[in-house]
Specification:
Distance between the termini: 45 Å
Largest sheet: 7 strands, mixed
Number of helices: 9
Structural class: alpha+beta
Strand order of the largest sheet: 1-2-9-6-11-4-3
Shape: globular
Order of helices and strands: HHEHHEEHHEEEEEEHEEEEHH
Strand content: 15-25%
Helix content: 25-40%
Bound molecules: 2-oxoglutaric acid, fe (ii) ion
Number of strands: 13
Protein backbone atom coordinates (compact mmCIF):
# COMPACT_ATOMS: atom_id res chain seq x y z
CA UNK A 1 0.00 0.00 0.00
CA UNK A 2 2.75 2.41 1.00
CA UNK A 3 4.59 1.62 -2.21
CA UNK A 4 1.39 2.14 -4.17
CA UNK A 5 0.69 5.51 -2.54
CA UNK A 6 4.26 6.50 -3.18
CA UNK A 7 4.03 5.42 -6.80
CA UNK A 8 0.99 7.65 -7.32
CA UNK A 9 3.06 10.61 -6.29
CA UNK A 10 5.67 9.81 -8.95
CA UNK A 11 5.54 11.04 -12.48
CA UNK A 12 4.69 8.47 -15.13
CA UNK A 13 8.11 9.09 -16.57
CA UNK A 14 9.62 7.80 -13.30
CA UNK A 15 7.16 4.88 -13.15
CA UNK A 16 8.15 3.84 -16.64
CA UNK A 17 11.64 2.95 -15.33
CA UNK A 18 10.15 0.15 -13.20
CA UNK A 19 10.52 -3.16 -15.00
CA UNK A 20 7.58 -4.73 -13.16
CA UNK A 21 5.18 -2.60 -15.15
CA UNK A 22 2.66 0.03 -14.10
CA UNK A 23 1.08 0.05 -10.60
CA UNK A 24 -2.41 -1.47 -10.42
CA UNK A 25 -4.17 1.91 -10.54
CA UNK A 26 -3.12 2.22 -14.15
CA UNK A 27 -4.34 -1.22 -15.20
CA UNK A 28 -7.63 -1.48 -17.09
CA UNK A 29 -9.77 -4.35 -15.85
CA UNK A 30 -10.22 -5.98 -19.23
CA UNK A 31 -7.25 -4.56 -21.06
CA UNK A 32 -8.04 -2.84 -24.33
CA UNK A 33 -8.40 -5.94 -26.43
CA UNK A 34 -5.29 -5.72 -28.51
CA UNK A 35 -1.79 -7.07 -28.76
CA UNK A 36 -0.26 -3.94 -30.08
CA UNK A 37 -1.32 -0.71 -31.64
CA UNK A 38 -1.02 -2.00 -35.19
CA UNK A 39 -3.99 -4.36 -34.84
CA UNK A 40 -6.34 -1.43 -35.57
CA UNK A 41 -7.00 -0.25 -39.11
CA UNK A 42 -5.63 3.14 -40.12
CA UNK A 43 -8.24 5.88 -40.24
CA UNK A 44 -8.99 7.50 -43.54
CA UNK A 45 -8.81 10.97 -41.98
CA UNK A 46 -9.88 13.80 -44.29
CA UNK A 47 -7.29 16.45 -45.16
CA UNK A 48 -8.27 20.13 -45.52
CA UNK A 49 -6.10 22.84 -47.04
CA UNK A 50 -6.67 25.85 -44.79
CA UNK A 51 -4.79 28.21 -47.08
CA UNK A 52 -7.27 27.42 -49.84
CA UNK A 53 -10.24 27.45 -47.49
CA UNK A 54 -9.44 30.99 -46.38
CA UNK A 55 -8.67 32.24 -49.89
CA UNK A 56 -11.10 33.81 -52.29
CA UNK A 57 -10.01 31.44 -55.09
CA UNK A 58 -12.44 29.01 -56.75
CA UNK A 59 -10.68 26.17 -54.86
CA UNK A 60 -12.01 27.58 -51.60
CA UNK A 61 -15.47 26.19 -52.45
CA UNK A 62 -13.99 22.75 -52.93
CA UNK A 63 -12.31 22.94 -49.50
CA UNK A 64 -15.59 24.09 -48.01
CA UNK A 65 -17.28 21.01 -49.48
CA UNK A 66 -14.52 18.86 -47.99
CA UNK A 67 -14.97 20.56 -44.63
CA UNK A 68 -18.72 19.97 -44.75
CA UNK A 69 -18.34 16.32 -45.63
CA UNK A 70 -15.48 15.72 -43.14
CA UNK A 71 -17.42 17.19 -40.26
CA UNK A 72 -20.68 15.51 -41.22
CA UNK A 73 -18.91 12.18 -41.60
CA UNK A 74 -16.69 12.14 -38.54
CA UNK A 75 -15.99 15.45 -36.76
CA UNK A 76 -12.24 15.64 -37.31
CA UNK A 77 -9.72 16.35 -40.03
CA UNK A 78 -6.05 17.05 -40.53
CA UNK A 79 -5.34 20.67 -41.41
CA UNK A 80 -2.53 21.30 -43.86
CA UNK A 81 -1.18 24.54 -45.32
CA UNK A 82 -2.19 26.30 -42.10
CA UNK A 83 0.73 28.73 -42.09
CA UNK A 84 1.82 27.86 -38.57
CA UNK A 85 5.36 26.70 -38.20
CA UNK A 86 5.56 23.60 -36.07
CA UNK A 87 8.31 23.70 -33.40
CA UNK A 88 10.24 21.34 -33.29
CA UNK A 89 -8.88 7.18 -6.07
CA UNK A 90 -10.68 4.55 -7.96
CA UNK A 91 -10.41 5.65 -11.34
CA UNK A 92 -7.96 3.84 -13.58
CA UNK A 93 -5.20 6.32 -14.31
CA UNK A 94 -3.85 7.31 -17.67
CA UNK A 95 -0.22 6.61 -18.55
CA UNK A 96 0.93 10.16 -19.10
CA UNK A 97 2.39 13.26 -17.51
CA UNK A 98 0.70 16.51 -18.45
CA UNK A 99 1.42 20.17 -18.28
CA UNK A 100 -1.58 22.52 -18.51
CA UNK A 101 -1.13 26.18 -19.35
CA UNK A 102 -3.90 28.72 -19.87
CA UNK A 103 -2.88 30.88 -22.79
CA UNK A 104 -6.05 32.94 -23.40
CA UNK A 105 -7.41 35.32 -22.36
CA UNK A 106 -4.06 37.01 -21.87
CA UNK A 107 -4.87 38.22 -18.35
CA UNK A 108 -5.13 34.69 -16.97
CA UNK A 109 -1.69 33.69 -18.23
CA UNK A 110 0.67 32.95 -15.35
CA UNK A 111 3.84 33.60 -17.25
CA UNK A 112 5.98 33.43 -14.12
CA UNK A 113 5.02 29.76 -13.74
CA UNK A 114 5.63 28.73 -17.32
CA UNK A 115 8.75 26.66 -18.04
CA UNK A 116 11.93 28.68 -18.47
CA UNK A 117 13.60 26.00 -20.49
CA UNK A 118 13.80 26.08 -23.47
CA UNK A 119 14.48 29.76 -23.16
CA UNK A 120 12.02 30.77 -25.86
CA UNK A 121 9.23 28.52 -24.61
CA UNK A 122 6.89 31.31 -23.41
CA UNK A 123 7.47 33.47 -26.45
CA UNK A 124 6.82 30.54 -28.77
CA UNK A 125 3.72 29.46 -26.91
CA UNK A 126 2.23 32.97 -27.03
CA UNK A 127 3.03 33.27 -30.71
CA UNK A 128 1.66 29.83 -31.43
CA UNK A 129 -1.56 30.56 -29.56
CA UNK A 130 -2.09 33.74 -31.58
CA UNK A 131 -1.62 31.84 -34.82
CA UNK A 132 -3.97 29.07 -33.82
CA UNK A 133 -6.49 31.66 -32.69
CA UNK A 134 -6.51 33.02 -36.24
CA UNK A 135 -6.91 29.52 -37.66
CA UNK A 136 -9.67 28.75 -35.21
CA UNK A 137 -11.57 31.76 -36.46
CA UNK A 138 -11.09 30.70 -40.08
CA UNK A 139 -12.39 27.23 -39.27
CA UNK A 140 -15.35 28.51 -37.22
CA UNK A 141 -16.34 30.76 -40.11
CA UNK A 142 -15.90 27.88 -42.56
CA UNK A 143 -18.07 25.66 -40.39
CA UNK A 144 -20.79 28.32 -40.22
CA UNK A 145 -20.69 28.72 -44.01
CA UNK A 146 -20.77 24.95 -44.49
CA UNK A 147 -24.12 24.99 -42.65
CA UNK A 148 -25.43 27.98 -44.60
CA UNK A 149 -25.26 30.20 -41.52
CA UNK A 150 -24.01 33.75 -41.17
CA UNK A 151 -20.23 33.28 -41.01
CA UNK A 152 -19.71 34.89 -37.60
CA UNK A 153 -22.42 32.98 -35.82
CA UNK A 154 -20.11 30.56 -33.98
CA UNK A 155 -17.36 33.15 -33.44
CA UNK A 156 -20.04 35.22 -31.67
CA UNK A 157 -21.00 32.31 -29.44
CA UNK A 158 -17.37 32.05 -28.34
CA UNK A 159 -18.05 35.42 -26.72
CA UNK A 160 -15.86 38.37 -25.72
CA UNK A 161 -13.20 36.43 -23.86
CA UNK A 162 -12.86 32.94 -25.29
CA UNK A 163 -10.34 30.71 -23.57
CA UNK A 164 -7.44 28.63 -24.78
CA UNK A 165 -5.83 25.90 -22.74
CA UNK A 166 -2.59 24.32 -23.94
CA UNK A 167 -2.00 20.78 -22.73
CA UNK A 168 1.39 19.16 -23.23
CA UNK A 169 1.20 15.39 -23.06
CA UNK A 170 4.20 13.19 -22.37
CA UNK A 171 3.51 9.48 -22.86
CA UNK A 172 6.49 7.44 -21.64
CA UNK A 173 6.96 3.88 -22.99
CA UNK A 174 4.79 1.37 -21.15
CA UNK A 175 5.81 -2.29 -20.68
CA UNK A 176 2.19 -3.53 -20.76
CA UNK A 177 0.42 -1.63 -23.56
CA UNK A 178 -2.43 -4.15 -23.67
CA UNK A 179 -3.43 -3.25 -20.08
CA UNK A 180 -2.95 0.50 -19.90
CA UNK A 181 -4.25 3.48 -21.82
CA UNK A 182 -2.27 6.66 -22.29
CA UNK A 183 -5.59 8.58 -22.34
CA UNK A 184 -8.97 6.95 -21.81
CA UNK A 185 -11.78 7.36 -24.31
CA UNK A 186 -13.26 10.85 -24.16
CA UNK A 187 -14.84 13.66 -26.13
CA UNK A 188 -13.17 17.05 -25.67
CA UNK A 189 -14.94 19.63 -23.50
CA UNK A 190 -13.71 22.37 -25.82
CA UNK A 191 -15.41 24.13 -28.65
CA UNK A 192 -12.59 23.13 -30.97
CA UNK A 193 -9.33 21.23 -30.46
CA UNK A 194 -6.05 21.43 -32.33
CA UNK A 195 -3.52 18.67 -31.76
CA UNK A 196 0.12 18.63 -32.73
CA UNK A 197 0.94 14.96 -32.95
CA UNK A 198 4.31 13.45 -32.24
CA UNK A 199 6.28 13.43 -35.46
CA UNK A 200 7.15 9.73 -35.29
CA UNK A 201 5.09 7.85 -32.75
CA UNK A 202 1.39 7.14 -33.33
CA UNK A 203 -1.03 6.62 -30.48
CA UNK A 204 -4.21 8.58 -31.11
CA UNK A 205 -7.30 6.59 -32.06
CA UNK A 206 -10.83 7.70 -33.00
CA UNK A 207 -14.00 5.67 -32.49
CA UNK A 208 -16.18 5.48 -35.55
CA UNK A 209 -19.16 3.10 -35.88
CA UNK A 210 -18.00 1.08 -32.84
CA UNK A 211 -14.54 0.51 -34.28
CA UNK A 212 -11.30 2.13 -33.14
CA UNK A 213 -9.10 3.58 -35.88
CA UNK A 214 -5.51 4.80 -35.66
CA UNK A 215 -4.95 8.43 -36.62
CA UNK A 216 -1.99 8.42 -38.98
CA UNK A 217 0.80 10.97 -38.74
CA UNK A 218 0.88 13.49 -41.54
CA UNK A 219 4.06 15.55 -41.08
CA UNK A 220 3.30 19.11 -40.02
CA UNK A 221 -0.47 18.66 -40.20
CA UNK A 222 -2.52 19.69 -37.20
CA UNK A 223 -5.31 17.34 -36.15
CA UNK A 224 -8.50 19.32 -35.66
CA UNK A 225 -11.54 17.95 -33.92
CA UNK A 226 -14.95 19.22 -32.98
CA UNK A 227 -15.40 19.57 -29.21
CA UNK A 228 -18.60 19.04 -27.22
CA UNK A 229 -19.49 22.74 -27.23
CA UNK A 230 -19.37 23.00 -31.01
CA UNK A 231 -21.54 19.88 -31.21
CA UNK A 232 -24.09 21.79 -29.13
CA UNK A 233 -23.80 24.94 -31.28
CA UNK A 234 -24.32 22.93 -34.47
CA UNK A 235 -27.35 21.24 -32.89
CA UNK A 236 -25.59 17.89 -33.20
CA UNK A 237 -25.02 18.11 -36.96
CA UNK A 238 -21.26 18.00 -36.34
CA UNK A 239 -20.37 15.57 -33.57
CA UNK A 240 -17.58 15.71 -31.02
CA UNK A 241 -15.73 12.46 -31.76
CA UNK A 242 -14.73 9.99 -29.07
CA UNK A 243 -11.00 9.36 -29.04
CA UNK A 244 -8.32 7.80 -26.87
CA UNK A 245 -4.56 7.33 -26.80
CA UNK A 246 -2.85 3.95 -26.61
CA UNK A 247 0.54 3.37 -25.04
CA UNK A 248 3.67 2.21 -26.80
CA UNK A 249 6.02 -0.42 -25.45
CA UNK A 250 9.24 0.98 -26.83
CA UNK A 251 8.85 4.62 -27.59
CA UNK A 252 7.97 7.81 -25.81
CA UNK A 253 5.35 10.02 -27.43
CA UNK A 254 4.88 13.77 -26.98
CA UNK A 255 1.92 15.84 -28.17
CA UNK A 256 0.47 19.29 -27.58
CA UNK A 257 -3.27 19.89 -27.57
CA UNK A 258 -4.85 23.35 -27.74
CA UNK A 259 -8.42 23.62 -26.54
CA UNK A 260 -10.40 26.65 -27.71
CA UNK A 261 -13.55 27.22 -25.71
CA UNK A 262 -16.23 29.89 -25.41
CA UNK A 263 -16.01 32.59 -22.75
CA UNK A 264 -17.20 30.83 -19.56
CA UNK A 265 -19.85 33.55 -19.12
CA UNK A 266 -21.30 33.09 -22.63
CA UNK A 267 -24.44 31.11 -23.30
CA UNK A 268 -23.74 28.16 -25.58
CA UNK A 269 -26.72 26.76 -27.47
CA UNK A 270 -27.75 25.41 -30.86
CA UNK A 271 -27.67 28.10 -33.57
CA UNK A 272 -31.20 29.33 -34.36
CA UNK A 273 -30.66 28.67 -38.06
CA UNK A 274 -30.17 24.96 -37.36
CA UNK A 275 -33.47 24.46 -35.59
CA UNK A 276 -36.70 23.80 -37.45
CA UNK A 277 -39.62 21.40 -37.32
CA UNK A 278 -37.62 18.66 -39.03
CA UNK A 279 -34.67 19.16 -36.74
CA UNK A 280 -35.82 20.39 -33.35
CA UNK A 281 -33.46 21.79 -30.76
CA UNK A 282 -31.42 18.86 -29.45
CA UNK A 283 -29.50 20.44 -26.53
CA UNK A 284 -30.33 22.72 -23.63
CA UNK A 285 -28.49 26.01 -23.14
CA UNK A 286 -25.36 25.92 -21.05
CA UNK A 287 -22.99 28.40 -19.46
CA UNK A 288 -19.45 27.29 -18.54
CA UNK A 289 -19.67 23.79 -19.97
CA UNK A 290 -16.18 22.83 -18.83
CA UNK A 291 -16.91 23.52 -15.14
CA UNK A 292 -18.50 20.09 -14.49
CA UNK A 293 -16.65 18.15 -17.14
CA UNK A 294 -14.24 16.22 -14.89
CA UNK A 295 -16.93 15.38 -12.34
CA UNK A 296 -18.93 13.72 -15.13
CA UNK A 297 -15.83 12.15 -16.65
CA UNK A 298 -14.88 10.45 -13.40
CA UNK A 299 -18.31 8.83 -13.31
CA UNK A 300 -17.80 7.59 -16.87
CA UNK A 301 -20.33 10.13 -18.18
CA UNK A 302 -20.31 13.09 -20.56
CA UNK A 303 -21.95 16.41 -19.63
CA UNK A 304 -23.21 16.74 -23.19
CA UNK A 305 -25.44 13.70 -22.69
CA UNK A 306 -27.06 15.46 -19.75
CA UNK A 307 -27.93 18.42 -21.99
CA UNK A 308 -29.68 16.35 -24.64
CA UNK A 309 -33.37 17.09 -25.02
O1 LIG B 1 -2.13 13.15 -27.36
C1 LIG B 1 -3.02 12.83 -28.14
O2 LIG B 1 -2.83 12.20 -29.18
C2 LIG B 1 -4.47 13.23 -27.86
C3 LIG B 1 -4.62 13.96 -26.57
C4 LIG B 1 -6.06 14.27 -26.26
O3 LIG B 1 -6.99 13.70 -26.77
C5 LIG B 1 -6.34 15.32 -25.28
O4 LIG B 1 -5.37 15.87 -24.68
O5 LIG B 1 -7.55 15.63 -25.10
FE1 LIG C 1 -8.85 14.77 -26.45
Amino acid sequence: MAAEVESLASSVQELSMNRNGPPSRYLLKDGIGLNGDSSFPVLDIPVIDLGLLASSSPESEEQLDRLRSALSYCGYFQAINHGVEIYSEKQTLDWNDRLYLNTLPIEIRKLEKWPKNPEKFSEMLCEYTTKLQGINEIILKGIAKSLNLEENCFVKQFGKKPTTLARFNLYPPCPTPHLVLAAKAHGDASGTTFLLQDREVEGLQFLKDDQWYRAPIIPDAIVFNVGDQLEIMTNGIYKSPIHRVVTNKERERITAAFFFAPDPTSVVEPAEGLIDENRPRRYKKIVDYTANYFEFFQKGMRPIDDLKI
